[in-house]
Amino acid sequence: MEISHELFVGFSKSFGLFYLIALSVGITLYAFWPSLGGRFDKAAKSILDDEDGPCR
Amino acid sequence: MKTFLKPLLKPFAAFFEGHAKAHYRLERHSLGLTAAIIVAAGIGGFIEIAPLFTIDETVEAAPDMRLYTPLEQAGRDIYIREGCYACHSQMIRALRDEVERYGPYSLAAESQYDHPMLWGSKRTGPDLARLGEKYSDDWHVRHLVDPRALVPESVMPHYAFLLDAGLDVESLPDRLAALRAVGVPYSDEMIASASADAIGQALPDTDRADGVFDRYGEETAVRLFDGSADRVSEMDALVAYLQVLGRLTDLPAQIQPVPEG
Amino acid sequence: MISSLTQAERGAAMLITLAGMVAGLAMAAAGQGDPMGAHGWIVLLFFALFFGLLARAAYGSDELEDRSLAYYDDPTKVGILLSLAWAVIAMGMGVWVAAQLAWPDLRFDAAWSGFGRLRPVHTSGVIFGFGGNALIATSFHIMQRTSRARMPGQVAPWFVLFGFNLFCLIAASGYLMGVTQSKEYAEPEWYADIWLVVVWVVYFTLYIRTLARRREPHIYVANWYYLAFILVVAVLHIVNNLAVPASWTGAKSYSAFSGVQDAMTQWWYGHNAVAFFLTSGFLGMLYYFLPKRAERPIYSYRLSILSFWGITFFYIWAGSHHLHYTALPHWVQTLGMTFSVMLLVPSWASAGNALMTLNGAWHKVRDDATLRFMMVAAVFYGLSTFEGSFMAIRPVNGLSHYTEWTIGHVHAGAMGWVALITFGSIYALVPGLWRRETMYSWKAVEWHFWIALAGTVIYVFAMWNSGIIQGLMWRTYGESGTLRYSFTDSLVAMHPYYVARAFGGLLFVTGAIIGAWNVVMTIRHVPRQVPERDHPTTSETMEPALPAAE
Lengths: 56, 261, 550
Fold this sequence. Notes:
The complex is a heterotrimer.
Chain A: H1 5-32, H2 37-46
Chain B: H1 2-9, H2 13-28, H3 30-53, H4 70-81, H5 96-102, H6 137-145, H7 147-150, H8 161-164, H9 172-181, H10 188-192, H11 194-201, H12 207-216, H13 234-244, H14 251-255
Helix pairs in contact in B: 2-3, 4-11, 4-13, 11-12
Chain C: H1 7-30, H2 35-56, H3 74-102, H4 115-147, H5 156-177, H6 190-212, H7 221-240, E1 243-245, E2 253-255, H8 259-294, H9 301-315, H10 330-342, H11 344-358, H12 362-367, H13 369-391, H14 394-400, H15 404-433, H16 442-475, H17 487-525
């Protein structure tokens, strides 16, 4: 197969779309997966009490 | 809502759980997170950029297009050095008012030898894509020396010091060779005689001037750009460059496109 | 500061400075008569300064403290001071160039003082000098705290910080000498670019090594943003700066790309510099300092993950909206436009997330100017991302492109978002970092806030107005069907706005000067406070960083 501009454009237009959809679905699932909620809450709270070492 | 979805999703629970766990593992290891960022940004970026590696296939053929002469290229380097691109674009968009104000809209072919392109992003001053031969050399020199003497409202900085600065012609063969390395089809002869050609183009009626015609065509402007035959100044180079803007090929005028908007 | 280095670290640091001096000398010798030679001298002096400091303390005591008990904050402190210094210099430069447009005679007669040479000093100084130093300093702070671990070494952070500042110094001094590639926000020439790659690799390694030492199971989301900033900026920087030097003894180089390909590469870089330098890293700041200052966890951690991936993925495609109606193929323009509009979703998710975090703590916003800096930054972030998506729509861009509107948009982001979140973070950070009870003057913080906000609003409104007027004048037709206004007419119409813009900028830099003064006075005059705890607290979750199964 010849590597032409049309080929690249076609690939970008088709594969790019599916890649976008797949990535969006994957991320959304991850972010909203119920069993991870507790860990996320802990992470969010973790920064509120992380002080502090002496500064020399 | 939840009670309704639960039985529906149950068969897939194991899959989802695995998917989420995999994700979690991914970002609890910093290198996994790194890889994920590269994949998300990199593949997206690559897909967009990939067609551009072959974009020269889409650039119109402009068989009559000539290269910048060494003097013009030196002028272009001064244009870059002084940051002219910060206020002047060189890209006429395909919009009716731009075509009427500045001329036929810019084609990709016109900047195919521009390393880098100087399309610009801001017009504090007007577009310069078709500036060449719109004004006389003398106008340009006087305008660069004192912009407000010719255009009282202008806010352009003056560039009088270019008149007194001798042009560095010795580095021109190196410059042309570097340009050839990135794809500009300069011949060995053009590179070898770059310094002489730069001087010749600013000193008409000399042997060196004939060399410029031989190598870059009879239409090349060979003139005393800064009005002085004493030496080749940076002003010579910059004006030579400004006078060739939009004149390397006739293609835009031939196509005479119908603009949008 | 040097006294806390071990003998081995001092030795390593001296070797690095020696190598730097040799490199500087080589550049100065090779580049005689070229700006590169001058840069060689700058490099030489820069490293000689540090060599001298190290040599003076070479035989000092070798401290044997237990480093694992403390975070390493010295580089953060220096980074913050450098950031403030760059802010004052670069914003001051911005006022000067703005004034040159209103009163062109302020250009004076020197070759180096023209608008074209000073402008990149302003842009690079603000983006890299002010923003970059703030990012490096805060990232050092945040990565240690969220990991509850100290940085692995004591040489690498200094190398990153000072190496980056050397890059900024070469860049800024180069512009004044006319050394530029003309690629906006990537102007420095090849040797500076190569040096930045070295610095960046060390930065990335340092970050990853710190994260690897963490005692927290989860990598807090602020680190994701910083990592994306480091990684993607590296890729962008390398690709866009590919060039062939005209000679190895001179500064001049020619880009590997030309014409339409170069335009696309440049704006792929240019827009993602906005995304990953001016957005991603500063969102990392926001996600750490805003919850911390408000003493409330981020409203939705899930949303922050979602918007992180959204921003990382969408931004990369958006660059071509800088090239609407140009010779760039039509479909690429449409692609850029579509993704730019979609970008609004993750951007507003971030801004909304920040504001929702403050919901229930509005009394703190009212009383605490530091928190207010962050709140207003989030608002401006929301505003300018909306504006950005809007301006990326092709017909809107037809009007706005090339005009002052673009400048207004950029400054809504740079002043309203980037600078305000940075100042807020600095005020949040300084007292704790230097072990002071409070800032020297809370009134000065309050003054800084209102002056900065007024300056931003004046600036942005002046540029919005002038940009739209300019765009409309360029396309207005008279009754006879010809263009009504000459270019000069539109330029004359800009004058009052240029004056207002310079005034707005002057207010903003005044605020920055007050801020810098306040920080210095805090360090010098506010009494030291003994910390309640002097060791990193352990993770609340009590989970090991790596589960036993792995």
